[in-house]
Design brief:
The protein is of the alpha/beta class and 327 residues long. It contains 9 helices and 12 strands. It has 2 domains: 176 residues, no CATH class; 130 residues, Rossmann fold, CATH 3.40.50. Helices cover 28% and strands 16% of the residues.
């Protein structure tokens, strides 16, 4: 998403990419970015010793401050602003550069960006505890806001980028629709006699989207269905945040971690593209040949936040003509 904005919208500015995951050099188009830097996620990689998360937050703030010290204005892009890893940058740069020279903007994050996730009263109260960090470091000031948890209703947000072709529930005055992520020029059919399927991994347990029991049932259902269809070759694409290789089977061939799945789909034909409720299934319907069949297994076992979210996501999948198979 960031690369799409960099190539199509912010071409006349110096662009700096901050990565939270290592070993992505082969995915990043280096000619687009003036600089790129790895910045550890505080709760995943805290500093050693007591108050490790707090120390990491402080270290990250200094790291980015030094990186952009030559600039008089700054646009900050993130998919969400309620997390501590991002939020403290808002007040820091507002104070340093002034409101006229600083703007925060929202990047789309697939299916999550198709609807709003209001902060409950209880969560807003709990976030007040983050003010305690300011007692130990005056630069760590948490910027509180209400409404949607990603920050779409916050005053410091001036633009919300959304994906082309996907619905949203944001303030239309702030919304900017991105051009298609990939220029559509797909391979329209299987040129050989071998049938192929691509399984899209997803951190279902890690993100508490599905129980271990139903993950196993879904994974087995996919494997049995592939055997029933006598699919000759099955490939698997791991999600970068999934350490458990969810939905993987030892009979599948693993695609490289550093591969861009969107670009891969434009250059490789699959008879079937299979997942649960991954955004990649939606992208596949936009990118791939009409001959490719996209299937969602087990979406009925997802732990949706509420009934409205479940209804909205299922309606979206049906609108995109993604086949839904219950488990």
């Amino acid at each position: 998403m960031a690369q799409c904005i960099a190539e199509n919208i912010e071409r006349n500015r110096d662009l700096i990419l901050v990565l939270y995951k290592k070993n992505l050099d082969n995915v990043v188009k280096k000619n687009v970015w003036k600089n790129q830097i790895y910045m550890p996620w505080p709760r995943h990689e805290p500093e050693p010793g007591l108050f490790g998360v707090h120390k990491r937050l402080t270290k990250n703030l200094t790291l980015i401050d030094v990186l952009v010290s030559e600039y008089q204005s700054l646009y900050l892009y993130s998919a969400v602003y309620d997390t501590e890893a991002i939020n403290y940058f808002v007040s820091f740069f507002q104070k340093k550069l002034g409101n006229d020279n600083f703007s925060a903007r929202i990047l789309p994050d697939g299916v999550i960006s198709t609807r709003r996730y209001p902060l409950t009263f209880v969560k807003r109260i709990l976030k007040k505890t983050r003010n305690l960090r300011n007692l130990f470091n005056k630069q760590l000031i948490y910027t509180h806001f209400s409404g949607d948890r990603i920050g779409s209703d916050a005053e410091f947000i001036d633009k919300i980028y959304v994906l082309n072709g996907l619905p949203h529930q944001y303030n239309q005055k702030k919304v900017v629709v991105l051009p298609p992520l990939i220029k559509k020029n797909p391979i329209n059919k299987n040129t050989g006699t071998v049938s192929k399927a691509l399984i899209i991994g997803q951190p279902l347990e890690g993100f508490k989207l599905m129980s271990t029991k139903y993950i196993n049932i879904t994974s087995n259902s996919i494997f049995d269905w592939l055997n029933e269809k006598k699919i000759s070759k099955v490939y698997y694409k791991k999600h970068p945040k999934d350490i458990q290789n969810t939905l993987f089977n030892e009979k599948y061939s693993i695609l490289p971690d550093n591969l861009s799945i969107e670009e891969h789909l434009t250059k490789n034909y699959y008879d079937y593209i299979i997942g649960v409720n991954s955004s990649v299934l939606l992208f596949a319907k936009q990118i791939c040949s009409i001959n490719s069949i996209v299937i969602s297994f087990g979406i009925n076992r997802i732990n949706f936040k509420d009934k409205n979210e479940e209804t909205d996501i299922k309606k979206l999948f049906k609108k995109f003509k993604i086949k839904i198979k219950k488990v």
